[in-house]
Structures are given as C-alpha cells and as structure tokens.
Amino acid sequence: MPTVTSLINLKGGVGKTTLTLSLAHFLALEHHKRVLVIDLDPQTNATVCLIPENDWKLRDETGRTLYQLFLDQLKGTPRFNADEAIVRNVSNISGGVQGLDLLPSSLQLIKIQDRLTQITDFDSYQRGPIFALRDALAAYLPYYDHVLIDCPPSLGIVTLNGLAISDSYLVPVVPDILSVLGIPPILDRVSHFAQCVRRNIRALGIVISKMRANTLLHNEMTRRLREDFVERRFPIVFETIIPESTHIAEAANVMAPINTLIQKYGAGGPYEELSALTQEYLAHVTR
Ligand SMILES: Nc1ncnc2c1ncn2[C@@H]1O[C@H](COP(=O)(O)OP(=O)(O)O)[C@@H](O)[C@H]1O
Ligand SMILES: [Mg+2]
C-alpha cells in the first residue's frame, strides 16, 4: 500500500499546494516513485498546475472530477469512476511525467459543501460521507508508492475524506505569528477525528515555507517553532526550510514547455531545498 500524506493548514497561502506539487514532482522524478496527487481543494490550484485548464473543464463537465464523487453521496448515484477520473502522467515537464498522476478537483465542490456538512455529524463522525474517497479509490491506491493530498484551508467533510485515507499529515506554515497560532487547533482536531475513526494519523511535521531569512520575525518564529517541538507542544519541524522565491510562483505555469526539474525549480530557484525536503520527507515516512 502507498504512503498517504495530507498537507493541511486552516490558513490559506501558506504553501500547501506548492509543497504538494513539488514533493510530487521530486518523488516521481528523482526517486522514481509512483505518485498520486489528490486535489481536494475547490480552488483547484493543484489541478490547474498539473493539467491545462481546458482539459480540466472538459473532465469537470463529464463527471471526471471529485465533484462527481461528492455529488453521488448526496444523490445516491454511482456515477464517479476513479479509473476514468485519474489523469495519468501529468505535469508540463517533458510533456508529462511518467508515474505522476492526478485526481482533479472542481470549483463546483463549493456549491455542495454546505449540503455535505448538513448530513455530517462532526462530533462523533458516525454520520456523513466520511469514507467516500476511501471506497472510491480502494482498487487504485495499491498501485502507488506515495499519495499526496492537497487540502483546502478547512477541516470540513472534504478534507476529512482525505484524512480518512491518510497515514500522516504535514503542516506547512509561514513563520509568522498568525500561522503559528493556527497550529494547535489543527493538531487537536485531527487527533480527535483520528480517534473517532480509529485510524493512526501521524503528525509527520511542520514545514516552514516562504521563509524570508532577512527578517527578524521569520527567524524568531522559526526558532520558537523548533523550541515548541523540544518542549513537546508541536511535532517536529523539518530541517529544510523553503525560502520565499519568485521562481516557485512561476513554476505553477503548466503551459511552460520545459524538460527538467532544474528548469522548473532551479536556475536561482529553490531546487536544492525542495530536493532536500523530499529526502527528509522520505526519511520521516519510512521511519
Ligand atoms: N516558497 C515560495 N516562494 C514564493 N512564493 C510562494 C512560495 N510558496 C508558495 N508561494 C506562492 O504563494 C501563494 C500561496 O501558495 P499556495 O501553495 O497556493 O498556498 P496554499 O495552498 O496554502 O493556499 C501562491 O501564489 C504561490 O505561488
Ligand atoms: Mg492551496
């Protein structure tokens, strides 16, 4: 079975999607792993960074995104088919990376989220479509070495579906005050959910991203995060820190015709850090 990791934070803009995508690329290209990216965020950022927008639209219109999976839960229909929905060999590197697959999200998820919430019991998780994703992917997950789940900035029913198949989760943070304050509620709520569904979901660690090493605040918050780990308040903080870099923002363009990871993330960009982060990730998940 694959190693399944969710990237979670209740805050937006902290690098969840960016880290999901770079880990996925490095695992597939530098470590030759079979990787599935699951985009649970209705903002569809990971999706449109991995496949052209027109492809995604066509898939969305024909029931081949996660919208169909959750619509089925509301309507009692069996239309979603994971085999058809999974897009194989995605990314703009060399016209597609062998072994890097995507389960695309949909903007339409926004309009059914409230209805999904209404049928869910968030105290005990005894009621609601918590295991829709698990059931739909059961036959396909064993094919992969790694599954990375890009979560929306919430712990609603869609995110819980991701957690319900996760072995662990990563918390990307920007080292500023509000980001750090946001960590304890995530740890508490994931641990409550894990207990309710009797699944061991490990807090793999905190990944600092968009670091501005020349600012006092970022350095101070980084030091505090590491201290919180030593005092056992927080999970481990990954050694590798991802700097703020305009190159990362540009790497999101799926239409740029490139051939290597170095072209995507290098040339003055954070290639080294992302490569190191992936190695650290592998060391942690295989521990
Ligand atoms: N290390 C980084 N350096 C510069 N920009 C970054 C970095 N990481 C993310 N970004 C940019 O910041 C914005 C938010 O990042 P994103 O990964 O989408 O966060 P989230 O998924 O947590 O909302 C995006 O525009 C992204 O391109
Ligand atoms: Mg995102």
Write a structural description.
This protein is an alpha/beta fold. Helices cover 44% and strands 11% of the residues. It has a six-stranded parallel β-sheet with strand order 3-2-4-1-5-6. It is globular. The mean pLDDT is 94. Adenosine-5'-diphosphate binds next to helix 1 and helix 12.
Q: Can you list the ligands bound to this structure? A: adenosine-5'-diphosphate, magnesium ion
- Total helical elements: 14
Q: Residue share in helices?
A: 40-55%
Distance from N terminus to C terminus (CA atoms, Å) equals 16 Å
Structural class: alpha/beta
Q: In the CATH scheme, what's the topology name?
A: Rossmann fold
Determine and state the CATH class.
Answer: Alpha Beta
The main sheet orders its strands as 3-2-4-1-5-6
The CATH superfamily is known as P-loop containing nucleotide triphosphate hydrolases
The CATH architecture designation is 3-Layer(aba) Sandwich
Task: Write a short abstract of this structure.
With 287 residues, the chain is of the alpha/beta class.
What keyword list fits this structure?
287 residues; alpha/beta; Rossmann fold; six-stranded parallel sheet; 6 strands; globular; binds adenosine-5'-diphosphate; binds magnesium ion
Topology:
Elements: E1 3-7, H1 16-29, E2 35-39, H2 45-50, H3 53-61, H4 66-75, H5 82-85, E3 100-103, H6 109-118, H7 132-137, E4 146-150, H8 157-163, E5 168-173, H9 177-181, H10 183-196, E6 202-208, H11 216-230, H12 246-250, H13 261-265, H14 271-285
Parallel strand pairs: 1-4, 1-5, 2-3, 2-4, 5-6
Bound molecules: adenosine-5'-diphosphate and magnesium ion.
